[in-house]
Specification:
86 residues, mainly alpha, 434 Repressor (Amino-terminal Domain), 2 strands, disordered N terminus
């Protein structure tokens, strides 16, 4: 499957749509969080966002989702290094 098609593919959840990539990213972050033993609130605090943010993202009934800005915050929270800082 071509990446551009994959990125532009939508999934309908309840009454709204999200990109397929966003749908796959949310459980991936949850898995990383679970492996660290962190609560939703703890990850939110490590990201510097409201304490309920991660819980809202992980709840598919909510419209909250991670954005490009959040990827940088997640990278820092989990202690990952970007390619440019290797």
């Amino acid at each position: 499957m071509c990446l551009s098609v994959f990125i532009n593919e939508y999934i309908t959840i309840k009454e709204y749509e999200i990109f397929h990539l966003e749908y796959l990213f949310m459980p991936h972050v949850k898995t990383l969080r679970d492996k660290k033993g962190w609560s939703q609130k703890e990850l939110s605090e490590r990201m510097g966002v409201t304490s309920s943010f991660v819980g809202n993202v992980e709840n598919l009934n909510q419209r909250h989702k991670y954005s490009i800005r959040h990827v940088a915050l997640l990278t820092k929270a989990f202690g990952f290094k970007s390619q440019s800082h290797s």
